[in-house]
Every structure is written in structure tokens, then in C-alpha cells.
# Entry
Amino acid sequence: MNRIITYCDLNFIEYKEAWDLQYYLHQLRVDNQISDLLLLLEHPNTYTLGKTAHIKNLIGGKEFLERNKISVYNIDRGGDITYHGPGQIVGYPIINLSEWYQDSHKYLRTLEEVLIKVCNDYNLDANRVEGYTGVWIDDRKIAAIGIKISRWVTMHGFAFNVNTNLELFNGIIPCGISDKSVTSLEKELGRKIPINEVKNKMLQHFVGEFNYNSYEMIEKETLLQPSMKN
# Structure
């Protein structure tokens, strides 16, 4: 099978707008009206609580949220609470696992492998931690993963810290894990990393790990234009 994925860089987009867009694209993929799709983007400051999240893990009070202009959403992915914000690459794969492997565990491990290889490109020894989802450098979490699979089509995805303001993780207990810290490429390497450089590496590894033959790019304006929604 000649497997092709469509890639779109949404740049900077509000969380709710991207969430609504995912639902629309998910249905198109279920109906086989579009090919597999990978969205990479950044969000403004946002906390999201997954289906198994505990509100006690949101420790930043009203004043903290208002001062840092942080929005809060209860959403339908798996996992607990996490942070999204500028300098962090968020990936939303909308892919049909029936055309790859109908295996949610393998899907999660492969997402981790993509991000581990991105870290390896920067000579960082990233790994998995038994019992947890995500990607780690020693006991410091650099990427969080939370997904939803409906009719074997995926939604939500991963958040990879590049030049992220790590202080904003202080308003939560990330993923409900209190005995480990978070990190970023910038913190580990001691310098800022161009976001587009990381996105390009991420795309290449995604194509390879998920066994696509190639990818095609679509512009944000094309993806969002009203004609796509008719």
C-alpha cells in the first residue's frame, strides 16, 4: 500500500479552535474523505484535564491563572492534567489505525519513539519510564502524550517542550506525577532551538516510524477555509 500522510503547520492557534478542527477532521477521516493527517502547532497558555484527571492536580489559583492568562479545559483525551503554551510543539495526528496497526499500545509506543528520535538528533539520551506514558531524559519529562481513538481514528496527541516556559508547570502537578520534574530542549542544551527546525525533524521521524511512503503539505489557510467544511 502506498501510504501518504498530509502535513499542516498550524503555527499558533487557540486551543478551542484546534479542538473543534480536530473533531471536524476526525469525522472526515472516519468517512475516508481525507487521508491521514498530522497537525503541528503551538497554543497560548492552556491547562487541559483529561478524562482521568483529578482537579486537585490544578494547584494554581485564580490569581495565578489570570496573571499568566491561562485557559483551562476539561477534554476527552486520556490522561491527567498537562500544560500547553508558546515554545512547545503540540502534535495532533488524525490517522486511521486500521490502515496501520489496530493497536493502541503500539500507537502510543510509536509516538514515543518519534519523540525519542527527535531528542537523539540533539544528542540527548531520551527514554521511556516504566509505568508512565511520555518521553523522559533521566527523570525529567520532556514530552507528554494523551490520545483519543474513536472508530480506530486518532485524536489529540503529544506535547513536546522546546523553548517552553517551564515555570508555568508550577500551576499543576503535571500528569498527576509529583515526584518528577519537567524539562525542555532549551533547558537541556542551554540554548533556544528554532521551532521549525524541530518540527521538520518531528515530521521526518513520524513519516518513518509510521511507515508512510511520503507526505504532502497543505497550507493552514487551505485547511481552515470554509469550502473544506461544505
About this structure: The radius of gyration is 17 Å. The chain has a mean pLDDT of 91. The chain has one domain: 4-229. Residues 99 and 186 are 36 Å apart (CA to CA).
